[in-house]
Each structure stands twice: as C-alpha cells, then as structure tokens.
Design a protein that fits this description.
By secondary structure, this protein is mainly beta. It contains 2 helices and 22 strands. The strands form 6 sheets. A 7-stranded mixed sheet has the order 3-2-5-9-10-1-4. It is elongated, with a radius of gyration of 23 Å.
Length: about 375
C-alpha cells in the first residue's frame, strides 16, 4: 500500500472520531449488545476567586499548544465483573500531526444493562530523560497489555506514578492526561460525555518593568515542588464536573503526603531573558511564553500562615523572593499566572508579586480538525 493511500485511510479514520462519525470494531448483531458512544474533552479546572492580574483571562485558560492537547487517546472499558471489554487506541499525531481538546462519538458495541468502568489514557508515549541517559516513557506502563477478556488490574493502574528526578526537570510535552469514569449502561444505546485531566500544573510568568533600568531574568525557583504524583487523579469534588460548572475540588491525594520528596525547582535561563525598562515582558527570545510544567503537590508550611509555596527570581544578579499569595494548595490541571512588577525605589527596586489561578479550560472545537 502506498504512503499516500495509507495517509488517506488514516485521515479518514481520524476524521470519523473527531467529526462525530462512527468508529466501529468488527462487531455483528450479537444478542444483548448495544451501542455506547463516547466523547472526550480536556477537563477544565474549577475557577478560584482571584482577579488580581491586569491581563485578559482568556489568554490563560485554554490550551497553549499541541503539547497541552490530546495527541493519542486510549479508551479501556471494563465490565462490572472486572473483565476488560474493550481496549482501543487512537493516534491523532503520528501520521497527520493533529491534536485536539475534544474528540467526539467514538462507538463501541457493549453488553448491557450493567455498570461500566471507563479508563481514559492520553499521551501515553511521552518521553522523559532518564537519569542514566537516553529517554524512557514518562508513564512506565504497557497499556497494550490490557487485553480484552482479561481481568483489569485496577490497583496496579491506580498506583502508577509520574516522577521527576532532577531539580530542573519539568513535565515534558505532550502532557500526560487520564481519568476514570463510571457509566450505567442501559440495555439500549447510550452516549457519554467524558473528560480527561492534565497530570500537571502550569505556571506562566509576566514581568512588568516600570523602572528605568533594563533587567535580565537569569533564573527562577519554586520551593516545595513535588517529585511524584499519581498518574490517575485521586480527587473528590463538591458538585459534579460532568453536569455543572459550579463545582470545586474538595480534596485530592498525593503519594506520601507528609514526605513527598518536596524540593526546590530551579530554572536557569542561559544568556538571560531581556526585560527592557518600562516594558512588559511575558515571552522568551523565541516568542514562546515563560511557562513551567510541574507536578501537583500538597505541601503545608506551618509557619507560612497558609502560604505554602514560595518563589524567587534572579534579575541582574539580585535574588527577589516571596511566598505565592492565594495559593494554599496546588492540584493538577491548574494554571498559576504570576505577575511581578518592578519600580524604582531610591537606590533599590520595589518589587510587587501578584498571583492568579485560572481555570485551565478546554477550547471547544467545531467538528473537524480544529482549523
């Protein structure tokens, strides 16, 4: 088969998934089986009541690039007896390099009525640098081994970890995402709107240089970053994320909450990031935003009066530091926007820190390839 024909077939299959057409396995009209269609979107995070940064919130709530979207999607459906019914893998990026925040109407033939557990795994092939050199999978698991007809390893999957070992290491793109949903499948056809949650927290820095001095950003730190998190989110909500926008995170779990190897994340900018006098700078020299991707954490600093995470920036050789205000916890899928303002103050510099936590929302796409 020629490369052109293969490309056309791949394009047609992916168009059916994203544009809402049916994707069928090799099924016949078996008794007791119905059609289950699933749509998957990238989750939003409940908004937190912060309005301090004088910027357009719409610049910070959506996916910035393909690395924050769905590039691959695996759907595993488990019957109420714990046996895997389906394990379907879709690769949107390999041949045609497309990424989405919403994938519609993926069709399965399933038995019903019964309770189904649906597991969603996104961007499972993301690589990280290994300590010994080379690369390895960020989520170290063979999801192809989840064979239909075999028992689903629930405890094994729920215990999977995402781990960062180096002090300057970030969660690599494409960001891993996952979720677990329970569906009450009737005897008739049924549609389920589901979501996945990014297994990362995102930081964006904006520098407002109101002084008469040209500045150079040489590095920054975030204190009490987390070494590890569960790949599958362990969260309880007030309200229902599937049916209401008025919900919030009630609680979430992290590995070894009292001793999660919290450390000081350090980022160095070789050659510095130029912040000219009387300008606002939010981008690197290549035009990309000043972003970081780290793991969720749950550190509590008893001496900080509820301000559990601290940060510092190094400008022109001087270190400026402060606690993150209004950031008592750091659950996954949140976007922390930091505005740092500088003013002349006698012979020194007056520094003001403002932090907003925005909902890291999905961007809804019309059916198609997200043009």
């Amino acid at each position: 088969m020629s490369r052109i024909i293969r490309h056309i077939l791949a394009l047609a299959a992916l168009w059916m998934a994203v544009a809402g057409c049916n994707i069928w396995g090799d099924y016949g009209p078996e008794d007791g089986m119905s059609e289950l269609s699933i749509s998957v979107s990238v989750s939003n995070t409940p908004a937190m009541p912060t309005k301090a940064v004088d910027v357009n919130p719409n610049d910070y709530i959506g996916a910035l690039n393909d690395g924050e979207k769905i590039q691959t999607l695996r759907i595993v459906i488990v019957r109420e007896n714990g046996v895997i019914e389906h394990n379907r893998y879709l690769d949107f990026y390999g041949d045609i390099q497309r990424a989405y925040t919403e994938v519609n109407n993926i069709i399965f033939k399933v038995y019903g009525p019964e309770t189904k557990e649906v597991y969603l795994f996104v961007n499972e092939n993301t690589l990280q640098t290994a300590v010994s050199g080379g690369t390895k999978k960020l989520v170290d698991y063979d999801f192809d081994a989840l064979t239909p007809g075999s028992a689903f390893p629930e405890e094994e999957i729920s215990s999977l970890l995402v781990t960062l070992t180096q002090n300057d290491e970030e969660v690599p793109l494409a960001l891993p995402m996952s979720e677990h949903h329970t569906i009450e499948m009737p005897a008739s056809d049924y549609h389920a709107d589901l979501y996945v949650t990014r297994a990362s927290t995102k930081f964006t820095y904006i520098f407002d240089n109101q002084s008469n001095v040209d500045l150079s950003l040489e590095g920054l730190t975030i204190s009490k970053a987390s070494r590890k998190e569960y790949y599958m989110p362990r969260v309880t909500y007030i309200g229902n994320p599937l049916t209401s926008t008025e919900y919030s995170v009630d609680d979430y779990q992290v590995p070894n909450v009292e001793n999660n190897e919290y450390y000081v994340f350090r980022k160095t900018y070789q050659g510095g990031v130029s912040i000219p006098a009387n300008t606002v700078t939010s981008k690197l020299a290549d035009g990309s935003p000043i972003n970081l991707y780290l793991l969720e954490g749950k550190y509590t600093d008893a001496a900080s009066d509820g301000k559990n995470y601290s940060m510092s920036v190094t400008l022109n050789g001087t270190v400026y530091s402060s606690y993150f205000p209004e950031l008592p916890q750091l659950p996954r899928n949140t976007h922390v926007v930091v505005l740092i303002s500088f003013k002349d103050y006698g012979t020194g510099m007056d520094v003001h820190w403002t932090v907003d936590v925005y909902p890291y929302e999905e961007v809804w796409l019309e059916p198609g390839f997200g043009q």
